[in-house]
């Protein structure tokens, strides 16, 4: 999620700098915005059809977001009188170090949440009660709460599950790139064909979603390294044995003039998607300020400089591994690294991974180990 904020120490910056930052992150920002819009639209369709007595909980996955014991969640329950009651976790439900700031609490109130205890039954949570006909409005509030207040960088970091009061699973239509917890208490995938409301999201029909759930279950039985290789191979439209891998087992992905690597770490389980954006660069205060500015504009990941190399990195948690999180990280990194190396080289010099034929030639897999060694 974002990097450490560093206040620029230099003055007299050229006016085009702000436009440059916008240009660098425009495509990525657009994709993230579209993903949230897709989630919100699907949620607006699903909430009015939530059966009476059922509840659906939306959670920022702590294993993917790195929030450890902090569980940021919103619970929406459907009443027998046609009402929808929503509860959003407050500071009483969050561990020290992850509690909401006064500004964040103000944002919750501005969205329409009532302070804890005001809505009957809300307890220590912020509460909100609307009629089912206001489902579209509630969808906007839930979406903005998860995104703007709880800090979910992308809907792919959200999980959701709907249940009745007796614990029975209530199928729901797909909600964009958020991850449905489909397993019921017998360990079998829930049948989404009977999901309430019209399943008209862009992710496909209910049968396709069940196929995806079955594939995910099969994937979960493999070692983390093999699961990562299968996901990257699917993105590359190839097979795992055709992936470009170096002597350390890092997977290499060509992204224009940049190279992106996918590395699996065992302890703790972690997948690092990273790129040596520029090497042989002279560190400077101006460079550090620019990298901090860019990092703060990125929905996920960070940029940093060590020794004479500028790196871009997006970590993916290996515990409770989710293919969608790795796919997002690879897509972000391949697009960003190819753009950044050109832009930053123009400002600060240095060398790109590819680009100078006489110095770093793209000679195929056999040479990949040598190129990787230059940067690690």
From TrEMBL:
Q: Which domain of life is it from?
A: Bacteria
What residue spans carry the region label Disordered? Answer: 187-206
Q: Where is the TY-Chap N-terminal domain?
A: 34-158
Residue stretches making up the TY-Chap central domain: 226-354
Q: Which Gene3D superfamilies match?
A: 3.30.1460.10
Q: What species does this protein belong to? A: Virgisporangium aliadipatigenens
Q: What is this protein called?
A: YbjN domain-containing protein
**One Pfam match:** TY-Chap1
Question: What taxonomic classification does the UniProt entry list for its organism?
Answer: Bacteria, Bacillati, Actinomycetota, Actinomycetes, Micromonosporales
